[in-house]
Amino acid sequence: FLFLLYFLGIGKTTLIQKVTQALKSSGVPIDGFYTEEVREGGRRTGFDVVTLSGKRGPLSRVSSDSSTSRRECRVGQYVVDIISFEQLVLPMLRNVNLGSDAEKKICVIDEIGKMELFSQAFIQAVRQMLAGSGTVVLGTIPVPKGKPLDLVEEIRSRKDVKVFNVS
């Protein structure tokens, strides 16, 4: 059974954190990551990836350079740090269900969005996890707007996914 949340607006990370804490305090094995705003002087300067085991690293930062390198992955004013993202997230995704059936965990993925989808290795790891039996995912995907994101639409259309709109 796959469980995927679809969030609108602000507060999705706070909700993910509260659900995660409730599951952990109930003794449910859980692993994964969430994204968190980075603010300096009251201004958002980027996003960090925070794993449920407490590791943190940059996902993106505002670029002060208006010229863009071909190799730079950007979403609006943010430059995505794919290397940092992959170093934090990929080991967790690949190991989340290596134990016995009794040790299977819930995997939190906040979120599967434009920034994260610059990583082909992340896309592959998510697909492998979804193809595995017994994986329970608590995740967030963006509201459809503009050009569809292939993996997001693939997830949204799965028969074993329950999508909730939260506003």
Automatic annotation (TrEMBL):
Q: Which UniProt keywords apply?
A: ATP-binding, Hydrolase, Nucleotide-binding, Signal
Signal sequence region: 1-16
Top-rank taxon, per record: Eukaryota
Which InterPro entries does this one have? Answer: Nuc-triphosphatase_THEP1, P-loop_NTPase
Gene3D superfamilies xrefs: P-loop containing nucleotide triphosphate hydrolases (3.40.50.300)
Task: Give the molecular function GO annotations.
Answer: ATP binding; ribonucleoside triphosphate phosphatase activity
PANTHER family, per database record = CANCER-RELATED NUCLEOSIDE-TRIPHOSPHATASE
**Name of this chain's protein:** NTPCR triphosphatase
| Species the sequence originates in | Ramphastos sulfuratus
